[in-house]
Request: fold
Amino acid sequence: MALGDNRIRVGILGASGYTGAELIRILARHPAADIRLLSAERSAGKRVEEVFPHLSGLDLPRMIHIDDADWSTLDMVFCALPHGTTQQVIAGLPAHLKVVDLSADFRLHDLAAYETWYGHAHQAPELQRDAVYGLTEIKRDAIRGARLCANPGCYPTASQLPLIPLLEAGLISPEDIVIDAKSGVSGAGRAAKESSLFAEVAEGIHAYGVASHRHAPEIEQGLSEAAGRAVWVSFTPHLVPMNRGILATTYVRLADGESAAELRRVLAERYAEEPFIQVLPLGSAPATRHVRGSNHCLIGVVADRVPGRAILISAIDNLVKGASGQAVQNMNLMAGLAETLGLEQPALFP
Amino acid sequence: MALGDNRIRVGILGASGYTGAELIRILARHPAADIRLLSAERSAGKRVEEVFPHLSGLDLPRMIHIDDADWSTLDMVFCALPHGTTQQVIAGLPAHLKVVDLSADFRLHDLAAYETWYGHAHQAPELQRDAVYGLTEIKRDAIRGARLCANPGCYPTASQLPLIPLLEAGLISPEDIVIDAKSGVSGAGRAAKESSLFAEVAEGIHAYGVASHRHAPEIEQGLSEAAGRAVWVSFTPHLVPMNRGILATTYVRLADGESAAELRRVLAERYAEEPFIQVLPLGSAPATRHVRGSNHCLIGVVADRVPGRAILISAIDNLVKGASGQAVQNMNLMAGLAETLGLEQPALFP
Amino acid sequence: MALGDNRIRVGILGASGYTGAELIRILARHPAADIRLLSAERSAGKRVEEVFPHLSGLDLPRMIHIDDADWSTLDMVFCALPHGTTQQVIAGLPAHLKVVDLSADFRLHDLAAYETWYGHAHQAPELQRDAVYGLTEIKRDAIRGARLCANPGCYPTASQLPLIPLLEAGLISPEDIVIDAKSGVSGAGRAAKESSLFAEVAEGIHAYGVASHRHAPEIEQGLSEAAGRAVWVSFTPHLVPMNRGILATTYVRLADGESAAELRRVLAERYAEEPFIQVLPLGSAPATRHVRGSNHCLIGVVADRVPGRAILISAIDNLVKGASGQAVQNMNLMAGLAETLGLEQPALFP
Amino acid sequence: MALGDNRIRVGILGASGYTGAELIRILARHPAADIRLLSAERSAGKRVEEVFPHLSGLDLPRMIHIDDADWSTLDMVFCALPHGTTQQVIAGLPAHLKVVDLSADFRLHDLAAYETWYGHAHQAPELQRDAVYGLTEIKRDAIRGARLCANPGCYPTASQLPLIPLLEAGLISPEDIVIDAKSGVSGAGRAAKESSLFAEVAEGIHAYGVASHRHAPEIEQGLSEAAGRAVWVSFTPHLVPMNRGILATTYVRLADGESAAELRRVLAERYAEEPFIQVLPLGSAPATRHVRGSNHCLIGVVADRVPGRAILISAIDNLVKGASGQAVQNMNLMAGLAETLGLEQPALFP
Reply:
């Protein structure tokens, strides 16, 4: 990969969706990256500002069809393609290209689980074996050496960051973990669906995918690894009338003799040097609006009134730390760059 | 109380807040009620349409100061006053007046619990003993004969309706119940507070009052009565950028040998004749937008992926079934009227 | 048409859209109407609550395909079908049926104008000649005797109500009228379009159809008739992140010697007996949230700082007075009922 | 002022409001500025993250009371104080300090007009004479040499940018200009007012300050200067349920023989080299969501259907180009820096 004087030459596949737009937004101002290729099926031939007027005025290539890509001009590819098609595309990429994949295709190590949740056999099982799960603060060393990074889902990012250190330390029970999660509507993507219409979403809230959301096995994979045993979670996502943000409210039972204060202490210690994770004072609860547009994850720990229980609350921007921001964070690692490069922008509030 | 030919003569104390407005909206079109008195401290002297332009064109009395009320002209009073001041006002009302109180002042039977949660001794303990808790579908018979009805809080209404029949029937464990609740902003009232500003609420979600919200003891009082033993719940409210609505997502452990289907069956049977409660098909999740402006409570039951667990989801309009609608439902009972009178309006969507 | 003891038997064609749902909401509680038929192409066979969960619990017929309609069972039909297909459907209805059409198909008297704006020749020109334009407060007498009522568009309703009396009275210039209008997103219908997605609409505002919106000729037709000469308007609609509501801010030049106060006086006098129109005190500006869910139109008149100019502001709910509410108001007239029947519900705020 | 190696040492007075927060957000990442002082009356003593959690993790001074400021440590001060108090504060600042004032105090050259609109005599008339109006693209040269820059209001920025070049070129009539403007709620500031509550603003739109808004004389001052004669405008602001953004829809009459295309051409030419102004293709209308968080102004020009008329539409973020972003742009000029420094971030969408 070209470093030193030269900037990393990146391509974005699936640039016409919201995560694609967010990759452009971040990478266009990244001091060590150079966007050389943007692909989009239906928008091939268009300029970026025709698809995303908020990105006008940047010096960017036209969108092309993926079949017209010249991979030799790139060092790194971000895949923001739909689940399912991604694995075939990535399997066909030349070996010199490093890949950060934002789809779910390479997140589940267990190919049988993939088949169960996604309804078809995996098309690139050999790549799956090499893929590194890109939850940066947990998998940093492996990501550095990865060729293919499976960028985590938005719910799994918000859910695992507070839980993994606590399960590893044995501070909480791996039983009866309840994750009640809330997401902004951009998480549903830019596809024209009745369920994503303004009038169907505004002025209301509802749960969806109850006990059946595909992010559940991804969360459980990470928690099981941390706990050293199989972990099942009650996971319920909700749709909130806001563009961006994920809030995960997680209810846990303390291990014998532990306290919420100890949970908070261990999390604060574990993440003390992390530029993008902030553990709030004990009893404080974060808000998604305070990470809007930023790559931060805020974590709060509260002692429950019910003895022996605690509540963990984590907030991220689903399109940034939950998708494109973490993808760039992983690119930085894979390219040997400072991890925060291009991601230092504070949140936008109000 | 005047019945027969005559309509019930009602007064609304604290008519300038959102629950007051909602009482006016409902009662102004109620075929057996006649609004005779509206009190509001700072808005005394104003016409209703000056305070609430959406209520113009109705033939209503001017707002007056509560000290100027002539109680002899009324049969029934709705108290929508702030917590704390309510008990003194009600203690001073003549005995012929029936009262539906929308504050929290008479909801907790245990005066010590009241003192703990509200920070001062109760000012009308003798009234507290007579007060009937107004969760209509659960306390209907007692409400019929009540002189003072303590109308439930919005969160307690949404939380208790699905849980009480299940605890009574012993279908779920009274341990480790987690209630993750989400509310629209009107629940915070019309007071000018920074935390209720549009720019502080829109485009975000956060938890508040975590493990410390005053509705927790009210919920636990009802659940304990149903379970026949002390029940503690993990209860976390969240603020959602919408005007109206409460969604309570409740995580329960099944009693041995029980199933989500059985939970759903028992709830459907229990509420089969209830005009305002609808139990959805197994696996369906309700949305708050489908009860906007109506007195309905929608309840969904979903089997969790974690064996032995289920998820209950309930949706109400916090200002209607969670406050003023249920108050009118209780008035109907107390006055010997059909319970649905004035409350038949379908929800407003979108 | 069956009157007297019997309720009017109504059918709603195109019941699965937002105006269809709103017709059901209003008519299901209408004391003199009985919904006998609901048609919907793709939702044929479904129960109403499957398509619109907020309308569950009402005793309504299943949705059917329009081809399966038995017209002999109906007295009145509401057409909430897409523009273009409507004219053929209505042309095929038996003569005993009265029709309120919510599409644009019969609003323009000038068939050439129709062809210009809608891009094809009119398919039922003979019906067009008989159609009565349903701006109730302006055309009341003609509507009473109509067989086919062309219900006005939402923008034209909000725009014409303040302007027509002033043009008729010669109080304002017919030149240089500027109508800057703002609409909620439900006006775009329930079709799944990228431009109506929550994430494309929330947190922003934009103009659309600038100088090319099809409601412009409809507005001009009414204003020209009122002025007795051709009137052209500058009309710009905007999309606002809210579900419901239209606000029209109209800038006019006063006729010589006239004043805003006189404009206000004439409007107040003209609409003094109108149950659904309220002229605010001089200088007051209405808000759409104060007519949410109601059939009201609020009108404000403000003297501009620029000498000789005034500003008119009108607010309606686009789905009620701007569509289904006015349609029921017209049905009431056509059926010889009290005009306000079924429409007395106050607005829902907040 | 310290340049060269040293960064500009800046202070922000009134740092606890929304424009203060936005100044911190931009300046904290500005490569040539160093935030040395933050003042806030009620929040004195607090850390920035206590007042604005979205700004945590930045290395910033604690907020202090303005009386405790050591002006000798600063080169430049941003004043984000309330109107009225500002002029006394600025009058008391030492001469070496350059000032960008975000209040309205120094925007009106005509002291009599100030007194009329603000209800009291100006307290620092001598400073008023030296103040340079900070509409950057129009007053760039004067701003470079200014000691005190009166940063424009949000509405005046959006309104004047399209109009001034057209009036200067004589392409439009200075008569009968209508500016219909729409603003997000952050423009009302962070003060706890009932009118800014979520439940009072969401799901609705209304006009306010009709024919009486204080930004009208500021707009007219700029337009009159451009036209070389007195210009009065019809200016109506509206409150839109969104956090950020101003859209100004402006209706103009063309000078004889002119066309919308010519207007567009002249604007495009005038702003061709401007990094923050983009003139869209003829007929295109901009959206505020495409400038959210950025310093850009998008301008659209549309030919009206009414002969001889055109419609101009401009979009900015009220807190950025309409306040803090333009303030930093002006600071850059006053400090001899590249004008775009710190302001290159693309907009955040969705």
